[in-house]
Amino acid sequence: MPYTTNDIKSIEAKWQEYWDRHQTFRVEADSTKKKYYVLEMFPYPSGKIHMGHVRNYTIGDVIARYKIMQGFNVLHPIGYDAFGQPAENAAIKHKTDPGEWTYRCIDQMHEELKRMGFSYDWDREISTCDSEYYKWNQWVFLKMFERGLAYKKTSSVNWCPSCQTTLANEEVIDGTCWRCKSLVVQKDLEQWYLKITHYAESLLKDLKQLQDWPSRVRIMQQNWIGKSFGMEIYFKVKDSQEVITVFTTRPDTIFGATYVVLAPEHPLVKKWVSGIKEEKDVLAFIEKTANKSKSLRMSGDQRKEGVFIGRHAINPVNGETIPIFIGDYVLMEYGTGAIMAVPTNDQRDFEFARQYHLPMRIVIQDPKNLKINIEQMAEAYEGTGVLVNSKQFDGINNEEAKEKIAQWMQKEHMGKISVHWRLRDWLISRQRYWGTPIPVIYCESCGAVPVPYDQLPVHLPKNVEITGQGGSPLNRIETFVETICPKCFKPARRETDTMATFFDSSWYFLRFCSAHNNKEIFKKQEAKYWMEVDQYIGGIEHAILHLLYSRFFTKFFKDLGLVDFNEPFKRLLTQGMVLKDGEVMSKSRGNTVDPDEVLSKYGADTLRLFILFAAPPEDQLEWNSDGLEGAWKFLNRIYQMVDKPIGTDVVQSERTIENIRNELSNYILNISEMDDNDKGLERARNLAIKQITQSFEEGYKFNTAISQIMILANAIDKYTFHMRVAMEGGSPSERFLVFRRKLFLQTRSIETLILLLAPFTPHLCEELWQMIGKKDSTVCKVAWPKFDAAALKQTEVIYAVQINGKIRGQFTAPVTASQEQLCELCMTDTNVTRYLQGATIKKFIVVPNKLVSIVV
RNA sequence: GGGCGGGUGGUGGAAUCGGUAUACACGCAGGACUUAAAAUCCUGUGGCCGUAAGGCUGUGAGGGUUCAAGUCCCUCCCCGCCCACCA
Question: Which end of chain A is more exposed for a tag (fewer CB within 10 A), N or C?
């Protein structure tokens, strides 16, 4: 009988219960075993899992289960990234406690993950909002504070008016908040930062080690870190002692610098502005720029605006007096907040110069077009070329001149060779409730004092009213704020900002190594055994934020001597998005498919199989309910294959199929008795093992792995059909001998099929493994099958014949055939002979075991 | 503007050290079973021509290299993602 939804439900529940009861996936560090650490990015516990989760965790689960069958000691944990704003938003909306809401969601999520049959070590389940976890956040913070890597400074920060909190640069997307999409504004605030820039060099350099990461993630990080080589050049200010330092990557163009531009926020501007005749214009301009949102100001198409500031600078290389402007296209945060403008070689400077009728000078000529002249220029020339109007450097190629001019200027003290980074320090203060309290106490006499280690954790107070108004909620909790200074014991106040939640997820992979250790952040020996993460899986959206922060923390832990590696994730797989009707599935689009509904109709195995079969893991996946139905049918077919094999109707004896199968355990196959069908089946079986193993080892091409399983299933069905034919005729005893051999081969193929399918659809395969008589073993722990190269050898192959580049026929030849034999065999195809009639063969090319190509 | 992917049947996708394009699946069509439907099984399925054998054509467009090109080279078009007044 075909199975039903109810059968599937009971099969899946049965095995989930079995794995639980036997703690099948619980692991311990054991140095005698080779380890493998598979990790999927842990979820934010919003309650229900979505298809993106299903895809992410299914991919991880298949890898984990495959590695277990390969004999590895596999660590495969799960947890919850449980702090964050949705809990507060829910609290405001439903008037509940964020903690209560979060723990309820975690329970629900836990149940849903269990229903998917994932092979997690549930003993290591963690939540970042537990004090036993966030205590160690505070510990890490204090360690960083001790080393000057956590510090407080006032600066212009990104502020989301809707979330009422600050944001890291990485959290600002196109000038909007990454979470709520509202326009981010700039505010001057005193905030806590982590000195990620301290590791800029190694964060960049070590990307080279990450050969098993997608190259685009490496490139994105590289661009984000943004190392640029160049020099700082000093421009003396005319009639003043002041010097403007600019940063440039193009010292080769210094002779073409015809003005200088400062960022409106540049400190020299404030100093100079009062009393000059342009004062009003300058102040108006500064205010106008400040009011512009950062996103508007930074968009490239924006018309560049600026204003003359009433002063001049001296170009150090030629002594020219050039005007100083302030301009909205110069950013205070990058470089020195000041630039030298070379309009002929920089498009932005060119546009600005044209607009304000500023002078230009050509200093690089395009060797292909020596007639570049200022009047006819429509845009800046940003290509390479030969220097002109540059005194002793005339005639030198500009790439070469970069180095020469830089060296010369440095020697003449006109500037210094330097490197600038795009990467900024990481702002971690958040004016929110639902996060880790920053463990600092402010004392009037002692200043900012770290909370002593023995007073950790600083507990997040419970029963706090969340209104979403009026700044940090913790600020209003007197019992939390009021404390005493650990140094001088005078009354003091606690820091009320909490940490950005990316802090929590920057080291959770290490916590999994010693999930519930309350003495240390993690056990050094356990981390040494389990780390690094061998395979990490998650969405591309974390290519910069989370992955960069995790790399930063790992490097810090190495400096602390806690770990002896400097990269956390050996291999990274970024899974594609799940789409429906060509668009990303999302609540806001209203095109989601609830995994729960799919589970109640088809069960976890069907869902898993469909998701893995529909597209390679890294590609986008288009949801297709027909495809889901197809996966269901396939699994049903496999079930039939095991449930109702050929046999009972063929064997004319009292033996049942079951006791024949029992006898088969002692059966010895006589290879010489095998007919072509037997050999074909064995070939298909071994080919499947070979190719599926290969799809696991060479990138995770699960879609083609599954198609190989289907091919094997087709071969078994075909073989079963031939079995019936082979049973016809002969005496009952003769028939029995043939039947026994065939049943042996068929059973062996079915067994192989179950093993190969087990990582993908674990529940059904456990059930089938039992049905086929393997009552004493759990399929998920059976050794992965190995293939027999001898069975793959063919004695004959089909050759295609190409005549003048077109396929004209084919023939069968022994694999050992010589060129002469092949030439003769060609002629056995009548279509080929027709084409060769009356023609002279000019060339005869043989591609071994594939084709022959004849040129006539 | 810069960087990185990608463009293959009606659909999801196979095949890229150059070697029979469209594996596997979905869908569709026809058939078997059934009073009927569902399920299941069998057959067919890029397009055009042909009863057939077979022929022509076909991997975004155009050109090139080669006995042979989805794959390599040149020119161009389109789509997706990321970054972006970063000096």
Answer: N
